[in-house]
Amino acid sequence: MTESYWNARYGAYIKCPVPNCNHVGSVITKAHCRLVHGMDRAEVRKKYGFPENVSKLNRKQIETMKKRGSRL
Ligand SMILES: [Zn+2]
Questions:
Q1: Which of 3, 12, 34, 70 has the fewest beta carbons under 10 Å from its own?
Q2: Beta carbons of 7 and 26 less than 8 angstroms apart
């Protein structure tokens, strides 16, 4: 089960592992990987690894990242 790596725990956030992608959310969706990076999640994982847990960041930092990377 690798599925859970793409979903943050309740109240937590993860960041897309692709360099220069600042997408942060409680889930990195299949649609995000496909539409933004043209890959499915398995390919993204193979190339860049699993999403990074950014729950240690404070809410303000996360909001800033979300705004910057709000392409989807
Ligand atoms: Zn991304």
A1: 3
A2: yes
Cα(64) to ligand 1 centroid in Å equals 16
All residues at 6 or more sequence positions from 50 whose CB lies less than 8 Å from its CB, including other chains: 2, 5, 6, 17
User: Considering the entire predicted model, what is its pTM?
Assistant: 0.75
Distance 21 CA to ligand 1 centre (A): 5
45 CA to middle of ligand 1, Å?
11
